[in-house]
Design goal:
The chain is of the alpha+beta class. It has one domain: 2,3-Dihydroxybiphenyl 1,2-Dioxygenase, domain 1, CATH 3.10.180. It is built from three helices and eight strands. The protein has helices at 15-26, 69-77, 91-100, and strands spanning 4-11, 29-36, 41-51, 54-63, 80-87, 111-112, 118-122, 132-136. The chain has an eight-stranded mixed β-sheet with strand order 2-3-4-1-5-8-7-6. The structure holds ligand V0V and cobalt (II) ion. Cobalt (II) ion (CO) binds at residues 7, 9, 59, 83, 85, 133.
Amino acid sequence: MFMRIDHVGIACHDLEEKIAFFERTFELTVVAREVNEEQGVKEAMLHIADGEGGGSYIQLLEPLGPDTPVGKFLAKRGEGVHHVAFGVPDVTQALQEIGGRGIRLLDEKPRHGSMGSSIAFLHPKDVGGMLTELVQAPERRA
Ligand code: V0V
Ligand code: CO
């Protein structure tokens, strides 16, 4: 079901400051930036590697406000790992299969994610305390 780890999401107060830290400390490069109103974040993807089915990234997340998933997380827990995202070939099918195994789905259907992907989240309480995201890469156009 999981093809790879697509990204690890890290919650931070100041996106620009964290990007600069990751660039100078780990020599990573930002390959995409987006404001995602629906998810309540301003985010940046830093490229790690390319593999079969897509790349892997660090995703830095700054909340658009306190009453958003990442805003609440920062207030409660402070900066740090917010979620782990797994690459799947078909996010709709993966949701059906995982939901059928009794895991609570935070999204019944896929939503818009970084770099044109389709994403959906699983409840952290049902996955050993880890907020889990499923990512389907966008269709490649010839
Ligand atoms: C909350 N909890 C977490 C957690 N956030 N546990 C692990 N990791 C997290 N990130 C725990 C929390 O401590 C509570 O446990 C319990 O879950 C319920 O949390 P809550 O504070 O009562 O509820 P909320 O309102 O904070 O909601 C939490 C959930 C929410 C996870 C339901 O954040 C959500 O729907 N997230 C999915 C969307 C999202 O995170 N979007 C931002 C990334 P205790 O204290 O009761 O034990 S967007 C993104 O990744 C994009 C765009 C992309 O990849 O392209
Ligand atoms: Co993510």
